[in-house]
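Sorry to interrupt, but I need a hand with the structure work. Could you write out one complete protein record for me, on any chain you like? Just paste the record in under my message, thanks.

. . .
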Amino acid sequence: MKLEMRDLMMAVTLSLALGTSGAQAAAGEPSGKSLVLAPAKGNCVACHALPTVKEATPAGNSGSPLIAMSARFPDKAALRAMIWDATAVNPASFMPPFGKHRILTGDEIDRIVEFIYEL
């Protein structure tokens, strides 16, 4: 597990150092908000409530509500790592490892992070 977390943090650091975070969606690419709501992609509302997003109803209640994210995750890289693979921090997590299992690309995760970080 230590090796996986180290590799994950190295990838995040390298991505940020190279300026490849891709937080801004290119023309025609889905925004962070649409990825959060999309059943075939992030589908965050299946488990998380997003009380400040009117399109996010009904919302799940098995995950923590996505509010005050910048206070809960002062370091965006930690939030990104959690979305990439929550099991690296909590092996019992039922949150899918979106990056590790290639459900979302790194660029899509970056856009989601930028969107939910402001919630």
